[in-house]
Specification:
539 residues, mainly alpha, 80% helix
C-alpha cells in the first residue's frame, strides 16, 4: 500500500472529512453501548468464575449457551447486516408505510418459524448435547441436556431483537440497539448472584439469566419504534421479502458450515479435558472486549453510509472506498496496540478479572495461554468485519460466504493436523481459530482491492505507525511489568488492579505520544471521538 501523501493524490475534500466525522460520531454512540456491554460482560465472567470456577459444569453451560446463539446467527444474525439494513435503508428513503409493513412481516415470520424450531430442539436436546460435547461423561452430558432445554427458547427473543436492531439502524437510531448486549449481560449477572447467593440455585441460574436477558433485549428497543405501525401479518409474496431472501440465500451455506465448525470446535474441546471449554470461553470474553468496542462499533457505524453510497448512482466508487478506508484506519490504529498490550499483560489481566473464589491460579495460567493464541488472530478479525460489511453494503453476500467456506476448511486442517502425531490440545484449537481469521481477512482484503484499489487511502502509513507505536509501547510494558510485580504485592485485588491500571495508563500514554511524534492523522479523529464521551462545558 502506498503513502497517501504522494503528490499524485490530492488531499481529500471537506465533504469526505465531514463524512468521516459523522462516522466517528455514530461509532462513538455505538462504542458507548459496547463499552457498557463489554464491561458488563467482564463482570458477568468474573461472577461466573467466582461462583463456579472453570469446572465441567461451566463448560456444560457454555455448550448450552451457544445453542441459541448459533440458531440466531444462522437464521437472523447473519441477515441483519447482509440483507436487513441495506433493504430497510432503501425503504426508509422511499416509503415509511412500506417499511412498517415489511418489518411487521419479518417479525411475524420470526415468531412462527422460530417457535417451531424451539420445539424441535427441546425434543432433541439429548442428541444435540452429544453432538456438541461428545467428550463429556454421562453425568455432564445430562447436565448439558438440561441446560440446553432451558436456554434454547432465548433464540426467539434474540431473533426478534435482531430484526428490530436492523430496523432501527436503517433509521439511524443507534442508541437503544447499542445497549441490548449490556442489558443481556446485566440480567445474567443479577440472576447468577440472586440465584446462587439468595435462592440456592446452581448452574441453572445462568441459564435463567440468559433467557430473561434475551427477553429484555426486545423490551429495551421497543421505545425506538414509537412511531412504527407494526401488526401481525403474513405476506409471502412481498417483493422486498424475496429480495432479502435473494441476498441472504448465498450466505446460508457459509453460515451452516461455520455453525458446524463451531459445533466441531466445542466437540473437539470437550475431548481435550472437561475444563477446556471454560478456559477458552474466559479467554474469548477478553478478546471480545476490544473487538466489540473497536471493530464492531466502527463497522456498524459505516454500514448505513456504505449502503447509501452503494445504492446512490450519482456517487462514485471512490467515495465508497474512502469511507471504508477511513473505517479501516480507525480500526487498525486502535486494535494493534490493544493486541500487543493484551499479549504482554495476559496473565495479570486474567488474574485481575477472574482469579478469586473457585477460579484458581492454574485456571489463570491456562486461560492466559489460550488468550495469547487467540490474540494472534485479533487484528485480522478486527479488519475483517468492515471488509465483509463493504460487500454487504453492495448487496453482495455470496463473496463473503464463499470466503467463509474457505476459512472453515483452513480451520479444520490446522486443528486436525497435530493429531497425526499426538492427542489434540486446547491450544491447537485456539491457534486454528487465529489462522482461520487471518486467512479470511487476507482473502477479503484481496477481493476488496479487486473491487477498487485501497492504495493511496492512508492504510499503509496508518498501519506502519500503529505497529511502530505498539512496538515501543510493548517494549515499555515488557520492561515495566516485572518491576511493578516486584515492588507491589499482587496477592490482593487492589494490588492486581493497581499493576494493571498503571501499565495500561503508561502503555496508552507511550502509544499516543509515539503516534503524535509520527504525526499520525488518525489522532484527530480519535480525539474527536473521545471528546464525545466528555461532558460539554456550558456557556
Amino acid at each position: 500500500m502506498s503513502d497517501p501523501s504522494s503528490p499524485t493524490r490530492p488531499i481529500q475534500p471537506a465533504p469526505s472529512v465531514n463524512k468521516a466525522a459523522g462516522m466517528a460520531r455514530a461509532a462513538s454512540l455505538i462504542a458507548a453501548g459496547n463499552v457498557a456491554s463489554r464491561l458488563l460482560g467482564l463482570v458477568r465472567e468474573t461472577v461466573i468464575a467466582n461462583l463456579f470456577g472453570a469446572t465441567g459444569l461451566v463448560s456444560a453451560f457454555r455448550v448450552a449457551q451457544i445453542i441459541p446463539t448459533m440458531l440466531y446467527d444462522l437464521l437472523v444474525g447473519g441477515m441483519v447486516s447482509s440483507a436487513l439494513v441495506p433493504v430497510f435503508s432503501e425503504q426508509v428513503e422511499r416509503d415509511r408505510a412500506t417499511l412498517w409493513h415489511l418489518a411487521s412481516l419479518l417479525l411475524s415470520l420470526s415468531v412462527i418459524v422460530l417457535g417451531f424450531i424451539v420445539i424441535i430442539i427441546e425434543l432433541a436436546a439429548p442428541q444435540v448435547a452429544f453432538l456438541m460435547a461428545g467428550g463429556f461423561d454421562d453425568e455432564l452430558l445430562a447436565a448439558t441436556t438440561r441446560l440446553i432445554r432451558m436456554t434454547t427458547p432465548a433464540v426467539l427473543f434474540l431473533s426478534l431483537s435482531g430484526v428490530i436492531t436492523g430496523l432501527l439502524h436503517s433509521l439511524r437510531r443507534f442508541a437503544l440497539p447499542a445497549f441490548t448486549a449490556a442489558i443481556f449481560n446485566a440480567a445474567i449477572i443479577v440472576f447468577a448472584l440472586v440465584g446462587v447467593l439468595v435462592l440456592g440455585w446452581g448452574i441453572e441460574s445462568l441459564a435463567v439469566g440468559l433467557l430473561v436477558g434475551a427477553f429484555f433485549q426486545v423490551a429495551l428497543q421497543l421505545p425506538g419504534l414509537r412511531d412504527a405501525r407494526l401488526r401481525f401479518v403474513i405476506d409471502l409474496h412481498h417483493p422486498a421479502l424475496r429480495r432479502i431472501g435473494k441476498l441472504y440465500l448465498p450466505i446460508i451455506l457459509g453460515l451452516v458450515i461455520s455453525q458446524i465448525a463451531i459445533a466441531l470446535d466445542r466437540n473437539f474441546a470437550s475431548r481435550t479435558g472437561e475444563q477446556s471449554i471454560a478456559w477458552m470461553q474466559f479467554a474469548t470474553t477478553i478478546i471480545q472486549f476490544p473487538l466489540g468496542l473497536i471493530s464492531t462499533a466502527i463497522s456498524l457505524a459505516i454500514l448505513p453510509t456504505l449502503s447509501r453510497l452503494a445504492s446512490n448512482k450519482t456517487t462514485g466508487l471512490d467515495e465508497f472506498m474512502n469511507t471504508l478506508a477511513a473505517g479501516l484506519r480507525m480500526v487498525l490504529v486502535l486494535i494493534i496496540p490493544a493486541t500487543v498490550a493484551l499479549f504482554i499483560l495476559a496473565e495479570p489481566i486474567v488474574a485481575l478479572l477472574f482469579e478469586r473464589g473457585e477460579f484458581v491460579a492454574f485456571d489463570t495460567r491456562q486461560t492466559a495461554l489460550a488468550l495469547r493464541f487467540y490474540l494472534l488472530g485479533l487484528t485480522f478479525a478486527a479488519i475483517d468485519l468492515p471488509l465483509v460489511f463493504a460487500f454487504y453494503a453492495r448487496q453482495n453476500t455470496l463473496t463473503p460466504a464463499l470466503v467463509g467456506l474457505l476459512a472453515v476448511g483452513i480451520y479444520l486442517v490446522v486443528a486436525l493436523l497435530p493429531t497425526l502425531t499426538r492427542p489434540m490440545q486446547m491450544t491447537d484449537l485456539a491457534l486454528a481459530n487465529s489462522v482461520q481469521l487471518a486467512g479470511h481477512a487476507l482473502v477479503m482484503l484481496w477481493l476488496v482491492n479487486r473491487l477498487a484499489p485501497l492504495r493511496g487511502r492512508g492504510l499503509g502509513p496508518a498501519t506502519f505507525k500503529a505497529i511502530g507505536g505498539s512496538l515501543v509501547m510493548g517494549l515499555v510494558l515488557w520492561q515495566t511489568l516485572p518491576l511493578l510485580q516486584t515492588w507491589l504485592s499482587v496477592d490482593n485485588l487492589i494490588a492486581k488492579a493497581a499493576v494493571v491500571g498503571i501499565l495500561v495508563g503508561v502503555g496508552g500514554g507511550v502509544y499516543l505520544l509515539t503516534l503524535a511524534l509520527l504525526r499520525a492523522q488518525e489522532l484527530t479523529l480519535l480525539s474527536n471521538l473521545l471528546r464525545r464521551f466528555l461532558p460539554r462545558r456550558s456557556g
